[in-house]
């Protein structure tokens, strides 16, 4: 889906990295594998730069969950890389961090299981196993942002503050979420941006 929408939007060269044989259980091994895959992606980018004249600034790496870490490891090896988008990432790690519907439970998804793991490296995978619908929603929101939707998000300290209208009272900073997100120079305060979405595609509410 994402590849098709990107090719509709512009004359991009889309490279898809299939590392499905390396990102399963055990999770600790998948994390280790992500570093290796990221190194290979970095090598490919450098090869394209050295042999085809590609510019580092022209690359946009998009990864979901551990794929975001793959993108990060690749980016460490390429100075001045254009952009990295991590989808389905819990912690704030970017220049801008977007939390649709608060970032956890998504409308239209139904919680299936209620349990806790008791051994290592569980927090990043518990929500996914309990309900992969929530975890994968970021992919579909990004796809909609390419050609279907303009997602306008509001800078705020928390989702509770956002839903109670406290951020609106202060004339908040706004940013577009998705493909057209832009880095905000000299951003002060929270890098967190919140918005609500619909429960099915197109997910934009306006």
UniProtKB/TrEMBL annotation:
SUPFAM superfamilies: alpha/beta-Hydrolases
Alphabetized UniProt keyword annotations: Secreted
Alphabetical list of InterPro entries matching this protein: AB_hydrolase_fold (IPR029058), Lipase (IPR013818), TAG_lipase (IPR000734)
GO MF: lipase activity
Lipase domain segment(s): 86-203
Subcellular location: Secreted
GO-annotated cellular components: extracellular space
Pfam families referenced in this protein's UniProt entry, alphabetically: Lipase (PF00151)
Protein name, UniProt field: Hepatic triacylglycerol lipase
Organism of origin: Trichonephila inaurata madagascariensis
